[in-house]
Design brief:
This protein is α/β, with parallel strands linked by helices. The protein contains 14 helices and 12 strands. The chain has an 8-stranded mixed beta sheet, sandwiched between helices. Strands 5-12-7-8 form a 4-stranded mixed beta sheet.
Length: 339
Amino acid sequence: MAQVSIIVPVYQVEKYIRKCIESIQAQTFSDFELILVDDGSKDASGKICDEYAKKDDRIKVIHKKNEGVALARNDGIKLSKGKYVCFIDGDDWIEKFMIENCMNRILDTEADVIFHGYKQELWKNKVVINIEEKSTSDFLDTLTHSEMSEKMEQLWPYCSSYVWSYFFTRKIIKEERFPNVKISEDHIFILNVLKKCDKISFLNDFSYHYCMRMGSSANRWNDTGLFCQIKMIETCHEFMESFSISEQRKKKLMAQITLSAYSYAIYTFCFPECKISVNEKMRQLKKMKKQLNLNEFIPYVEMKGLSFSEKIKTKMICNKMEILLVLAGPIFMKVVRRA
């Protein structure tokens, strides 16, 4: 039985899946099983997966009807057998030491979960136009559950919403599964796992390459986005409730989370694919603000650590000037996409 199960959801990634698979095959740690879940791809992705599986008995392929990345990952979990589990997206790739580095860390610390950094590659017209290293905390190393509670303010910014930036023990995942939502399924899954952790360790490793492309699922309009953000906020609240944190601290943390979710909703309204009227956008934002109880948290919003543009956006939201963001956003997005 393989030590590590690597689960890759695959959908319409024929241009990228070969690099992804070959980067996994090249790992210095070779005791793994690679589970490729073809989520009803209409391009050649599924055939490419089968091609590699015929040549490498560590590779297993699942072909299924298209149901979304959350259920694809769940099917991968069901089939997996490894003592450790990690996820990689089909259009991303990893450097050859990544799995070995995570294994060494998890064995040394006996942690339930490893959180590692990554390189974010911004792609435009098939060219990388920017690479940014996203590190784990410089001051967090390995935390017990009680230490997570004590250092929640420092910990929270590093609780990535990307499931591929984590390396899990199977025992901590147990029966946990991804919710069937289109956005934030990663974040919901991660928070539900982390609240059960006895120990989490951080690894400043940049071996994972997140290839961020305009038009990907995270960078286009989705009409279920508001519902997904509300679901995510509910999970965040449950996560905070699982720790011994004062109400004052909870409100400060929830202010940051809630404002971020609301801001993301505005961001999705700016994509050209979003065809609803300005009046409808404002109606939905008003409804979301009420459901998130945003006005309660605004007094606890802090500007410290925000970039200049984030400060401007935050001040506009806090001063109920979202209409300016809704009007100007689509124009700015068109300029960015043409740049």
